[in-house]
Design a protein that fits this description.
This protein is mostly helical. The chain has a two-stranded antiparallel sheet with strand order 1-2. Helix 6 packs across helix 13. The protein is globular and about 65 Å long. The termini are close together.
Length: 460
């Protein structure tokens, strides 16, 4: 049997259940996107852009690009409403090797690395209230080739969070827990924004503030790569397309609702940041943006409240990735290019429990490894590469299969998806020029996937 022959979900028994509505899937998008990036990238953007209006325009422009990408994914997801997201689309457009490389990168670093990073940050914020939770003193060191595995109280807390949320999503009711976490996250952000703008000690005049930067025109362009990376995750609903009820209607709705919701929140947060301090002060910050804004608006006492919010926010982000990532490995296993057991679905819960467990194990290993931060940094640009290539597949599939039934067609085709692909290419070139060492290291991580693919492929 060919690799693609197993792509039909009907061949798997038991199969994933279509139980997600548009708001369930939109919640996955929102929590996948809104992570730690929005609390440090605005500083980078402010250092590159001289005018507040330009800064807000850059964030809006990034949101428009994300929405264009989401609508392209909506066409692909309704054309092939299966689990796996761009793994499925690259397989259909470019073949199994290209698909495997995106799935390989997702497992090695994309989802697993982001989960591990979020869990470590979660432990650090818990340490604000229980200091031992953030203690990095090694309790046990296990020397292994090329890396040192260190067990500390912080790593134990982080791994406990990964295991707990993975266990939650072993069960069908995990979506309810995730919806609750996302709702709490969004409500906390809305309250923070409303209280900050309504009662915080800021100045509306800051919205007209300016400062001097080295290259005002090129700076705006250079701001787009970090902004687009901060928006990454807008495609999360596509990974669970096989579990969304009436996908022809609800996948586009989920992608649109989730992406628009994120854009609105990001715009409001940036307005709040500038309301709290002029753009020049924002550019001078050395991290700790959220803490600084909270203290300027509400005083020092707001720090603990913000810490509690961060715990909920990080838990929601980890939860979203625990949902999305395993659907990729499940699709790969169904194509016989991943661990065979990852294709198994629990007969009662109808979830890919083995794929979830595999991701939890690897994420936990990354928590214990000192290479975590480097690995995530190395492969961050791959998110842009693979999403850009996936959107490009809209053109290829339309050309190859013009008469195929497309329940939803990408809005603004061909200009909007072409614009997204062009922006993705610019970001990749920017990364290669400005961050050559991490980029080359990231390409090496992806390239390692080539021989791994052939090992799996020989078994079919």
């Amino acid at each position: 049997m060919s690799l693609n022959a197993s792509a039909d979900p009907s061949t798997a028994h038991p199969s994933l259940a279509r139980r997600l509505g548009p708001f369930d899937a939109a919640a996955i998008v929102v929590s996948n996107v809104i992570g730690g990036g929005i609390y440090f990238v605005p500083i980078t953007v402010a250092r590159l852009i001289p005018f507040t209006g330009w800064l807000l325009g850059a964030w809006l422009f990034g949101g428009v690009l994300a929405f264009a990408g989401a609508m392209a994914y909506a066409e692909l997801a309704t054309l092939r409403p299966h689990a796996g997201g761009e793994y499925v689309y690259l397989r259909e457009a470019y073949g199994p090797l290209a698909a495997f490389l995106t799935g390989w990168t997702s497992f090695v670093a994309g989802f697993s690395g982001s989960i591990a990073t979020g869990a470590v940050a979660l432990a650090e914020y818990i340490g604000r209230f229980v200091p031992a939770a953030a203690d990095t003193t090694p309790l046990l060191t296990l020397p292994v080739p090329w890396v040192s595995i260190e067990v500390s109280r912080q790593s134990i807390v982080a791994i406990s969070a990964i295991v707990a949320l993975s266990f939650v999503h072993f069960h069908a009711s995990g979506r309810l827990v995730h919806n609750a976490l996302t709702l709490a996250k969004v409500l906390a952000l809305v309250v923070f924004i409303a209280l900050g703008l309504g009662w915080g000690h800021g100045l509306m005049g800051n919205l007209a503030s300016t400062h001097t930067v080295a290259g005002p025109i090129t700076g705006w362009l250079l701001a787009l790569p970090p902004i687009m990376l901060t928006y990454s995750g807008w495609n999360a609903a596509a990974y669970v397309a096989e579990e969304i009820k009436d996908p022809n209607r609800n996948v586009p709705r989920a992608l649109a609702l989730g992406t628009i919701g994120v854009v609105v929140i990001y715009m409001a947060l940036n307005i709040l940041f500038i309301y709290a301090m002029p753009i020049g002060d924002l550019a001078k910050l050395d991290g700790h943006l959220a803490d600084t804004v909270a203290e300027r608006l509400f005083g020092v006492a707001a720090g603990d409240l913000l810490g509690a919010f961060a715990i909920v926010s990080l838990a929601a982000s980890i939860s979203a990735m625990v949902i999305a990532g395993p659907r990729v490995y499940y699709a790969m296993a169904r194509d016989h290019v991943f661990l065979k057991s990852a294709a198994q679905v629990h007969p009662q819960q109808r979830t890919p429990m083995r794929a979830i467990a595999a991701q939890a194990v690897w994420s936990s290993i990354l928590v214990l490894s000192g290479t975590l931060e480097q690995l995530v940094n190395y492969t961050g640009f791959a998110v842009v590469v693979f999403s850009g290539v996936a959107v490009l597949s809209v053109f290829k599939l339309r050309q190859r299969d013009p008469d195929a039934l497309r329940p939803f067609k990408a809005w603004g085709y061909p200009l909007a998806p072409a614009f997204f692909v062009a922006a993705s290419a610019i970001i990749v070139v920017y990364e290669v020029i400005n961050e050559p060492v991490p980029t080359m290291a990231g390409l090496a991580v992806i390239a390692v996937g080539v021989p791994v693919y052939f090992v799996f492929a020989k078994r079919t």
